[in-house]
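FAQ
Q: What does a multi-component entry look like?
A: The components come first, one per line:
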Amino acid sequence: MVTDFDFYDEKFQNFPHQTYRTMQDTCPVHNNTEVGWYAVFRHAGIMAIVRDNEMFSVRHGPGTNYADEHSVPVLVGADPPLHTKQKKAIAPAFNPKIIAALEEPIRAFVQQRMEALAELVECDLMAELADQVPMFVISELLDVPFADYPMLRDWVDVMAGSTLQKAQTMEADRLDKLRKIADYFLPRVEAKIALDEAGEDPGDDMVSLLVKGRIDGERIPTPQILGFAQFLLVAGAATTTVFIGSFFNLMMDHPDQWAKLKADPSLLDQALEETLRIESPVHGLFRTNNEPITLGGHDIPADTKIGLMWFSGNLDPEVFDDPLRFDIAREPKVLRKHLSFGHGLHTCIGGPLARMEARVVVEEFMKRFDGLKRAGPLVPYPFPTLNGPYKLPVRLIPRKEN
Ligand code: HEM
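Then the predicted structure of the entire assembly, as tokens:
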């Protein structure tokens, strides 16, 4: 039985696929005594947990740390009935019509980025494209100026990074950024509340929707609205950034798949889904068990942190044939079983938006460019929560007819 799995090992972080496969076969539930959390590697094991909301809870938080007095339970950190009520309050902002209406401004923004890229021979594709598009979208959703994005991005990196942090290593930094985010959003939220109280409409962005929303006839408390804004920033931006980066990175590694996609652009949705499967943007997130439980032969005391390793579940040969092979022509029905957006009660509500952002980026890219080649080594995302490129130096190959 393999027991030396070290999630924080640099080699693992840079090349996780084969280790995840090995763990599935040799130690499907792993007890990492040093860091104090269990990890579940098989697709079926993860599904069993996300389906059992009586036994498993998120109230101690979605990351390695236990929620404390600074934590506000929001969505991935809230169990029913609070979760049900919060979801009801935000659901209108994610209805398909609202998401579809975002496509036009997103495409206009992406086209501008493509024009800027066309002026460059070489660039870091993350800085020039993959960082900016999701940040543009989030700034629209949260009604904040896009010009603030370098600062927001810095906060997001720390917040995302600290989700799966080792012990307390990033705690001071996390609290500092939490304060900065609160200072940034609080006056904006208060201004919207003042408008709402004066009988004026604060807007149709998500923060305004929460300000206008009521739970059991009561206003949503300001700390929850702040918590939501902070969560959206972390959940929606960096995840989509690494997703877009991974797509282009995979295509550089697999020119045959790129050629296949160019020959048949109707494969784009599958290609994006296969990217999500084989390079899950999030390694995993946590539940705790409400009662003592035996899992994979381990007797686990109540309230233990159990990591659902989405990334590993996506590489399970019991669900995906030859799982380490990148194949954009996989059967869509099977592909959709990937766990990159979680599953069950807390399934990512932003999945359709993230997919649309990536689709628009690739469509516009293909109009302008024939492809891309590496111009330097990839720098991986520096915090262990997320998986994908952080810097991706490339040389862009313009389309011949341009
Ligand atoms: C490729 C991009 C994305 C990935 C990989 C991703 C991943 C995830 C995962 C794995 C969960 C489930 C957590 C769990 O079960 O513990 C989740 C939840 C969530 N995500 Fe995403 N996400 C992405 C993009 C977005 C976007 C663009 C938004 C919004 C703008 C968003 C908003 C949310 C929300 C609100 C939840 C909480 C749902 C709930 O608890 O009911 N995500 N995401």
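Q: Is there any commentary attached?
A: Sometimes. For this entry: The mean pLDDT is 92.
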